[in-house]
Amino acid sequence: MAAALRSFYFCIVFSAYCFSFALAEDDSQFIYNGFAKAELQLFGAFVHDNGLLQLTNTSMQYIGHAFYRFPIKFNTSSSQSLSFSTNFVFAMVPRSGYYGGHGIAFFISPSTKFSGTVTAGSYLGRFNISNHGLPTNHILVAELDTVEHTEFQDIDEDHVGIDVNSQISVDSAPSAYFSDEDKKNKSLALESGNPLKMWIEYNGEEKLLNVTLAPIGIPKPSRPLLATSIDLSQILLDSMYVGFSAATGSDHYILGWSFNKTGQAQNLNIKDLPSLPKPGDNTKHSVKPSLPFIVLIVAAVVVLTTIGGAVYVVRKKKYEEIYEDWEREYGPQRFSYKSLYKATGGFKDTEIIGKGGFGKVYKGVLPNSNLQIAVKRISHDSKQGLKEFVAEIVSIGRLRHRNLVQLRGYCRRKGELLLVYDYMPNGSLDKILYGSMRPNLNWFQRIRIVRGVACGLLYLHEEWEQVVLHRDIKPANVLLDADLNGKLGDFGLARLYDRGSNPQTTNLVGTIGYLAPELLKTGKATTSSDVFSFGAFMLEVACGRRPMEPGEIDLVDRVIECWKKGSILDAGDPRLEGIFAEEQMELILKLGLVCSHPNPAIRPSMRQVMQYLDGDAKFPDISPDSNVIGAFTETNEASNTMATFSSLFESSSSHTMSTIDSIIISGR
């Protein structure tokens, strides 16, 4: 009997042990208030005696990783929705005399072994140039980034971002927390040396990833910093590792960590967290170098200096560029000539994608980012207004609109200025309209391009903080993305001025056929002169002909001639083979004529143009024999006629409007 009882108890204890062991192999949650006895896999990171996890120190090009020992079974292929929650306390402590670090990242990865060799610094020890951006990475990252990298499209120097398989964030925000007391966001300095807390929560049913940040002594804010819509079931695999990474330049610490795969992660006990080292306490981080080691280092420096000196002298001339003190304020907007030289393969002729009166345009790929760019090289006079010109170029680089090509920055070298733009895979509109290998744009694509450029021009004239005059609107400066959406580019001639002030642009620049008549007299550009160029552009897109061609009637005269013959639609591009919306074609042709009117008082504003294109206002009923159309050739038209027509545009949203001729007659 006693033997039977002993056997029974043994079975119970053994079963309990097996059950607990099985749970340990598939943990769905854990909490560490310090890491003295934590089950972690460490690569370059280490745990202090008090349980403080240190990912990196102030060493340059240093990488640290820390993973939870067992993979987490997310079961993304099951019918149950994928959800998880985690929170942790971290600190970034800069050291006196060292450059700051690049930040910390929480990440979910299919393996503790990264493919290839990861790179320190801007890649935060997670990617390198060969695997950056690959969908096969299956990596989700929540980054705490303290350096602004233009190649990764960072928003500022202190930000929180969500990255998927890439260092370029799908969503990001300046580091801050929502104060429930003040009902507003308050900024946080990530690299302050103070402990901060982060919450990361994913709801699989709503496909929503929330990221919240706050100082350690404040309860979790009611409003997250980031609320990103994302389907992680398409990114994560069934079995994934969770952990942290950091790279280069500062002491990066994790004080505590809680994780739950199936519900809300437990709150950390702030009182139980390990303390940070006192300032000046370097006993855990420094190693006293021996005399032979110092001798070896000195000898290596002497040899490398001798060899590198000769290389430097040769390469200095190759990459020499102009850099003056006043340019330092522009920071990331200035690209190094070396990076652009490498991006374009040494500005090879095979990389040329365009030529113009101001220089050549090269296709390139920025080193370390795989970002495709277009580099325009133009000549400049470094003694005449260059500072003001560069200041405007940098300001234009802050423009953000879906129908504008992004100007990313510039570079100066000897007698040339290099402007860096986003690359547009379908090139310029004029190449498609007139190139020998061009595809034929259908009417839907053309009207979408016209509207897109109009929308971008309205943003420049009325919706940005300053008024921007483009001064060179033409098909050659309208670029097409992969979906043939039109984007207005080439801001090399653009100028800015404050609202309510008069523009001071008096140099005659632009392209013949797109220049407003008043520019030829005064040289003074206005928003109305941009509208004139846009009118010529509209007619060109609709008719498939340039505004002026040797030996042929001007495009404006041809459209008016067809109109007077009673068939204005005959002016349309014959390659369209009559396949277009007649009302839209008629509107584009008539609106193009009015925008191209020789008198600026008659031209509509870009806001009125958009209203006509979108059908929010009815275009005036104009006949080809009206005095307004006649003013194309009769420049001495009465001023009251112009004023009457201008007022007509202001009130043309009324659908009970009379014809232009009757209004002019009644006004006499």
Automatic annotation (TrEMBL):
Signal peptide positions on this chain: 1-24
Pfam families (UniProt xref): Lectin_legB, Pkinase
Molecular functions per Gene Ontology: ATP binding; carbohydrate binding; protein serine/threonine kinase activity
Domain Protein kinase: 347-619
Gene3D superfamilies, per the entry: 2.60.120.200, Phosphorylase Kinase, domain 1, Transferase(Phosphotransferase) domain 1
Keyword Ubl conjugation: no
Source organism superkingdom: Eukaryota
GO cellular component, one term: plasma membrane
EC number: 2.7.11.1
TM ranges: 291-314
Keywords: ATP-binding, Cell membrane, Glycoprotein, Kinase, Lectin, Membrane, Nucleotide-binding, Receptor, Serine/threonine-protein kinase, Signal, Transferase, Transmembrane, Transmembrane helix
UniProt-annotated binding residues for ATP: 376
Membrane recorded as keyword: yes
Bilayer disposition of the protein: Single-pass type I membrane protein
Catalysed reactions, semicolon-separated: L-threonyl-[protein] + ATP = O-phospho-L-threonyl-[protein] + ADP + H(+); L-seryl-[protein] + ATP = O-phospho-L-seryl-[protein] + ADP + H(+)
Localization: Cell membrane
Record family assignment: In the N-terminal section; belongs to the leguminous lectin family.
Protein name per Swiss-Prot or TrEMBL: non-specific serine/threonine protein kinase
Native source organism of the sequence: Dipteronia sinensis
